[in-house]
Amino acid sequence: MLPVGPDVAWEFFSNPANLQHITPPRMGFTVISEPHQGRIYAGQIIEYRLRPVLGIPMYWMTEITRVDDGRMFIDEQRFGPYTFWHHQHHFEEKDNGVLMTDIVHYRVPLGWLGDIANSLFVQRQLEGLFTYRTSAVDSLLENKGG
Fold first, then answer.
1. pLDDT at 146
2. Count of H helices and E strands in the chain?
3. Contact (Cβ atoms closer than 8 angstroms) between residue 91 and residue 13
4. Helix/strand/coil for 27
5. How far, in whole angstroms, is CA 21 from its chain's centroid?
6. Which of 12, 30, 125, 146 is deepest in the core (most CB within 10 A)?
């Protein structure tokens, strides 16, 4: 539960520059595409550089494929570390804030080797990322109110 009103939550999450502030520093995550003034929009391409494994740099490009202002948006990978990446961000106003729900579908490359890698560390790394984000977002938004 985000301790803010829906406008504050949407403003924060619909700004791609904020991704850097809610990603663990050890991942070396940086938005490298030109900043866009205003909120995200369907068709927007966002490019990143990150170092998720052993400090090896990776390029990642996502496209915002759907935006329902204030309610949800979807980003999908166009180039990057996954064979498939589809990430839904849902926002629901509640009495004491905003419930944000992430739904992620992904597939790692390399067939059965990728399945092993997913079992050994990719799935845990993603779970750790979202745990970190929960804490970071709470900290960043706690004084913003609603």
1. 54
2. 3, 6
3. yes
4. helix
5. 11
6. 12
